[in-house]
Amino acid sequence: MNVSLLPLLLALAGAGTQTGPAVAGYYRLVQEQDVASSLVLRPDGRFEYSLAAGALDERAEGRWSLADGLIVLATEPKPVPPP
């Protein structure tokens, strides 16, 4: 599985406030075996993300914005690492 796109999508910087229908929509990985994913960018600046790959399951939600031409995701609530 090529996950090089995840660091770009999961940048947690809070810069930028632009959102809009131009990039809002439903995104998913395609042509990957045993992987299910989705990224929903809503026009109101909210997002929902999920990834299931083998034994790995991830979910997040929060706010998104555009900063220097990149989509920036900020999770709400902020994730807490396991102890």
Short description:
With 83 residues, the chain is mostly beta strands.
Description of the molecule:
- The protein is mainly beta.
- It has one domain (5-74).
- It has one helix and five strands; from the N terminus they run H-E-E-E-E-E.
- The protein has a five-stranded antiparallel beta sheet, with no helix packed on it.
- Strand 1 and strand 2 (35-41) form a beta hairpin.
- The chain starts with a helix and ends in an 8-residue tail after the last strand.
- Mean pLDDT is 76; it is low at 1-18.
How large a portion of the residues is in β-strands, by DSSP E? Answer: 35-45%
H-E string: HEEEEE
Number of domains: 1
Give a quick account of the main beta sheet: strands, pairing sense, barrel closure. Answer: 5 strands, antiparallel
SS elements, strand count: 5
Neighbour order of strands in the largest sheet: 1-2-3-4-5
Distance between the termini: 28 Å
Tell me the radius of gyration: 13 Å
Provide the helix percentage.
under 10%
Shape: flat
Total of helices? 1
